[in-house]
Request: fold
Amino acid sequence: MPMSAIDVGDNAPGFSLKDQNGATVSLSDFHEKTWVVLYFYPKDNTTGCTAQACSFRDAYQDFKDAGAEVIGISSDSEEQHQGFADKYRLPFVLVADEGGRVRKDYGVPKSMGFLPGRVTYVIDPEGIVRHVFNSQLKVHKHVDEALAVIRGA
Reply:
């Protein structure tokens, strides 16, 4: 059964997952307060994922200034996320989608048929998806695309 991908104009599927500190993070916590940049990535401590996370880290104040929160999401455990966040001083939350349920809810495709995909969703304060960027290899462009959408709103 094929996954139905979430696209621009759709309501962002809600979720409640544990972050790297064991706290529960729900998408609804941000409704009517702030934009959310939800980025799905394959795995902590891999070359592309580390470069992407550090790009979001380096631009984090720009996101905050633009009225947005950044949430990274992968199937890694809370403990793996904690080590990754500590090692690279990541200021945003990483949530553990163990089992990949939220990834399926968003319809994030696999890359090359087997790698978990790398897709960023920009969600407005009303919970509507305003931008989707899918690129396994252009890891830094996820930050540029998301900032451009939020700043242009």
